[in-house]
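[agent] plan:
  1. take the single chain provided in the ticket
  2. run structure prediction with default settings
  3. attach structure tokens to the ticket
  4. add a short note for the reviewer (M.T.)
[agent] executing step 1
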Amino acid sequence: MAQLALALQAADITPARSATEALAAAGKTARVQSGQKFFSEVRYAGSDSCKACHESQYQSWRASWHSKMEQWPSATTVVGDFENRRIQFRNLRVQTADGKEATINPAALAFRQGERFYFTLIDQDNPANSQTWQVAKTLGGKWDQGYEVRLNQDNHLPAPLRWSVTQKDWIVGGFNPQDWFVADGTPDGRPLKPEELPRNRVAEAKCNGCHTTGFGFAKGGDGVWKAHMQGQGEIAVACEACHGPGAKHVDEAHAARRSGVRLLAGKTSIVNPLTDLGPEQATQVCGRCHGRGSHKESTDLAFPTCFLPGDTDLLSRFRLWSYSGTSNKAESAYFWPNDWASRNRQQYQDFRKSGHYSKAGMSCLTCHAFHGKTDGPQLRSKAEGLCEECHREGGHAMRPNAEMYAGSDMDQVGVACVDCHMARIGSRSRATSKSGHQWDTTSHVFAVASPMLEKTLGVRSGCTSCHFDNKKEISAADVLPSGHSVQQELIDNTHRRSDEVRAGVAEVLGLLAKADVREPGVAALVNEARVNLAFIVRDNSKGAHNIGLTRQLLRHSKALAERAVSPPTKTSHGSRSP
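[agent] step 2 finished; step 3 output follows
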């Protein structure tokens, strides 16, 4: 990573465009109408072929986690603890030999031999049945790190071990460890032999459509899904995953260089998702991997196939999972009852429910950038700055949210927009031996997961990370009434505040309706009061952003309205009485 950081500095990478610039640059009329037609019969060239002309973009990609989605195992790429660590699985529900279910508590041992990494699934009562596997690939490493083992020449299987990077410990539930054991009447069961493992769970059917670039997928003669290169394939989310297969573009670049001419952006046979695609097309490029679902035709595939940047038919190829759209608990378990995501890799499902998607004409690329200097999770700027670009007077949203929020109690203690509007109500990591369940995935609906949603539907409240019952200092009262929780107090306060603001606005409007704007000076009073009310109404938080400023504006507006309704009477000389 240090070498990559130095490479980025050497490349002198400029800042990514701002969100406002990204909105302006988005292809309102897409240059590419269909990825299938635009890239017809074009092969993949590999990301190394991009480097000669696009050095800075290549280096920024190399520094991203997209480039590290899959890697070959080494002391550098493996972050899990393989120093003879024992991992205990608990309460696994597995099949018995006669097809019934039983509960077992098996264990694994993670170890290494030099640059090679292994794990053994242990049969405590009969060590001869233990099964040892070598790690063939790593998966990710930013939040969690998973691993794959090689089943045979053509297939890999996701390993039952998963490492939590944030907790620096093995996740006790691993990754589908129940697929690796069978009940045999003993407390820890028996590890399955290689030939007994489920072939329907191979990585080529469940993972690689998103974790790799430049591969096609088809069933082999044994009925198991295989991957085959379509040109130069890569074990990464590489350049061509977002820009499209590039062999034709590489050829035209070489031809242009020989001729001494410069290729013009927007005139080449490659796609820039920001400028060449419409917002829906750009979002679908991300959604094909950042959405959870099943292939519509080959339902055992967990990803769409043959989708290319510029296509608009993702939902014809891929069935998105949801809570409300299925009776299958294996699918609905990934969502809250209101269909918001409760797990990771479902940003596409969430984003489609947002006003950003349905009203504002935004795409994922409005806030996220993948080249140039970015912040945190590849944001175009710091999160609070991104929100304020649009959510201010004169911004794209035309709402004075930033002005209203500035100086509020929450602003002063460092609470940012995303803490409430993108609360961590989903999870990537699960519990480790050091920690409980991890809430580490932000919502992309951009609506507040309120305590009322938690009370009525069980959706995790976004307020819970700061406001919980053993932190008494967050309560207005020193001692809460018996049976009255902090979350209930927040619900009550929200209702009272909303009622207060609605009533205050209605009262001022009622007074203004009585004002005679023909009277001298009254129109100015009425206009000033309406400007204040419009500020409150357009903010649309009903006091949640800043109840102090909201009350101040309401008091001032009421005073103006009262003056407008009862203007000073004229004296005989035509002047107003004091």
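[agent] step 4 note for reviewer: Residues 1-12, 471-480, 571-578 have pLDDT under 50 and may be disordered.
[agent] ticket updated
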